[in-house]
Specification:
Helix content: 10-25%
Number of domains: 2
Radius of gyration: 27 Å
CATH architecture of the largest domain: Sandwich
Number of helices: 6
CATH topology of the largest domain: Jelly Rolls
Shape: elongated
Distance between the termini: 42 Å
CATH class of the largest domain: Mainly Beta
Length: 462
C-alpha cells in the first residue's frame, strides 16, 4: 500500500508540473527530426504538429529538418535545419507591459512577429551568444553562420548573377498593397526595390499605387485597382537596334514616361489595351481602361463619355488606333470597332488624378548596369529585414546598429564588430526555406536548396 501511495504521489507531482508548465507556443508543422527538451537537457521528445512548447524548453531541428512555430503572441517562425532555439521568457498580455525574450543558440529562423513587438517594441528581443536583436514590428531572417553560409553563398553567386541579368524593372515607390503573378500564376508580394521580370502581372489594391522604373530608364505610375503586365523589355545600350518594349494595360489606369527604347527606337515601344495598341514618340501620357476595355472585373466608373479607354498626352505624342494624339490632346475609345474621339478638354479623372506623374516622384536612382555582388560571408550573425526594423546590439561593446526594411546587418562571432551590410547576402536573398506564413508548406521538399541533400529526409512528423 505504501508503494502504491508513493507512486500515486510521484505521478501527481509529475502531472502537476506538466499541467502548470507555462505554454508559450505550438508546433504548427514539423518535417524531419524535431525534438524538444528541458533547459537541463533532460526529457527529450520527438514533436510534431499540434505539440505544445513550454517556456524555457529548447527546440532543436536536425540537419535535414525544419519546424514552424506559432508563439503565444501570434509570432510565427520557421526554424532552419540544425537550429537550437528557446522561448526563454514571454509575457503575452495585450498591453504595453508585454515582453518576450527568445534565445537563438545555433542555426537560424525566419520570423513574422506578433502583437508584443507592436504593443511594446522595446520589450521584444532575441538573444544570441554575442548580440541581442531588438525587434520593432518586423518580418526578418536571422542566422548564426559558420562555414555553412559561405559555402551556400558561393553556390548561389551564379544564380544571383543569372537572375539579376533577367531583371527588367524595379519598384521605386509604393503605397498600399501590390502583388505580382509570374507566367505560372504564382503570386508574390511586391515591395520597394522588388525585382520585376518579363511576364510579371502587377496588381494594385484599393488606395494603392506604385512607381516602376525599367531598365531603359522609362517609368510608369500604376493607379489603384490596376492590372498591368510586362510582356517584353529588351534593352542593351550597345545594341539599340534590338531594343523593344511591350506592355499590357489590362484594367485600371497608369501614367507613363518613355525611356531610351522610345528615344532610340520609337517603333519598338508598344502599350496594348483591349481596344487599342498605343505607339509613342518620346512621350508622357495617361491611360484609363474601364468597362468593356477591362479584362476580368470591368470596374465601371460611369464616366461622362461612358466607360472605355481614355488617353491624355502631356509630353510628345502617341498613336491611338493610328490616330496621332499630340501634347495637350485627349481622346476616348468606346470599343474596339470605333475610332478614337477627341475630347474638347481634359477629363476630370485625369485633371484630378491623385497619382503623381512618374517623372515627378523623387526616387532613389536605380542602376541596372551592374548586378549585385555576393558579400563576403565570415562566421557570425546575419540579419535581413523584410518589414519594420531590427536593432543589433553587441553584448561585448554595447555598439548597436539599426537595420531598416530591405537591409541586412552583421555581427561577428565575438560581437566585437557590428555593421550594416551593403546588400542582403545571397544565402538569405535566395533562401528556399518556407516563410512561416507560407500556405503551401506541404509542397516544400528536402531537395529544394538548403533543406537536404540527394538522400532526402529520413522521416516526416505531422
Amino acid at each position: 500500500m505504501k508503494i502504491v501511495n508513493s507512486l500515486l504521489l510521484i505521478t501527481g507531482i509529475l502531472f502537476c508540473s506538466f499541467a502548470y508548465a507555462k505554454q508559450v507556443g505550438e508546433i504548427k508543422y514539423a518535417r524531419g527530426a524535431v525534438t524538444v527538451q528541458k533547459e537541463d537537457g533532460s526529457g527529450a521528445r520527438l514533436v510534431g504538429k499540434g505539440d505544445k512548447l513550454a517556456q524555457g524548453e529548447v527546440i532543436q531541428t536536425g540537419p535535414k529538418s525544419f519546424a514552424i512555430l506559432k508563439l503565444a503572441d501570434d509570432t510565427r517562425m520557421t526554424l532552419r535545419p540544425g537550429t537550437s532555439f528557446a522561448v526563454e521568457n514571454m509575457n503575452a498580455e495585450r498591453t504595453s507591459k508585454a515582453t518576450a525574450l527568445l534565445g537563438l543558440f545555433r542555426g537560424g529562423f525566419r520570423a513574422i512577429t506578433g502583437y508584443i513587438s507592436k504593443k511594446n517594441p522595446r520589450g521584444y528581443r532575441v538573444r544570441t551568444p554575442a548580440v541581442t536583436i531588438g525587434i520593432r514590428g518586423t518580418e526578418f531572417d536571422a542566422r548564426l553562420c559558420n562555414k555553412d553560409c559561405a559555402n551556400e553563398n558561393k553556390k548561389l553567386e551564379k544564380k544571383l548573377k543569372k537572375k539579376q541579368a533577367r531583371v527588367v524593372g524595379r519598384v521605386a515607390y509604393q503605397r498600399g498593397e501590390i502583388k505580382a503573378l509570374n507566367f505560372a500564376e504564382k503570386s508574390r508580394d511586391i515591395k520597394v526595390r522588388s525585382d520585376l521580370y518579363e511576364g510579371d502581372l502587377l496588381k494594385t489594391g484599393s488606395n494603392s499605387y506604385a512607381v516602376i522604373v525599367f531598365r531603359d530608364k522609362s517609368r510608369i505610375s500604376l493607379q489603384a485597382n490596376t492590372d498591368f503586365r510586362i510582356d517584353e523589355l529588351r534593352f542593351d545600350i550597345d545594341k539599340p537596334a534590338g531594343a523593344s518594349a511591350l506592355f499590357s494595360l489590362l484594367r485600371g489606369g497608369l501614367r507613363a514616361v518613355t525611356g531610351l527604347v522610345g528615344k532610340l527606337k520609337p517603333k519598338g515601344y508598344r502599350m496594348r489595351t483591349r481596344f487599342s495598341t498605343i505607339g509613342i514618340r518620346g512621350t508622357g501620357y495617361d491611360l484609363l481602361c474601364t468597362g468593356l476595355c477591362a479584362y476580368g472585373d470591368p470596374s465601371n466608373l460611369n464616366l461622362p463619355k461612358g466607360d472605355g479607354l481614355y488617353a491624355s498626352v502631356w509630353s510628345g505624342a502617341i498613336t491611338l488606333n493610328k490616330k496621332v494624339l499630340d501634347r495637350g490632346q485627349y481622346a476616348f475609345v468606346k470599343n474596339a470597332s470605333t475610332p478614337p474621339v477627341l475630347l474638347p478638354k481634359m477629363p476630370a479623372h485625369f485633371k484630378n488624378n491623385p497619382v503623381p506623374k512618374p517623372n515627378e516622384v523623387d526616387v532613389e536612382d536605380i542602376d541596372f548596369s551592374q548586378t549585385d555582388q555576393a558579400v563576403e560571408v565570415p562566421p557570425g550573425l546575419y540579419v535581413s529585414v523584410t518589414e519594420g526594423e531590427v536593432i543589433i546590439k553587441s553584448l561585448l561593446t554595447n555598439m548597436e546598429i539599426v537595420v531598416a526594411k530591405g537591409g541586412a546587418g552583421f555581427a561577428d562571432a565575438t560581437g566585437r564588430h557590428v555593421k550594416i551590410l551593403p546588400a542582403i547576402p545571397a544565402f538569405q536573398k535566395f533562401d528556399t526555406l518556407p516563410r512561416p506564413n507560407n500556405q503551401e508548406i506541404n509542397a516544400a521538399t528536402s531537395r529544394s536548396g538548403v533543406l537536404g541533400d540527394e538522400d532526402g529526409l529520413v522521416c516526416e512528423v505531422k
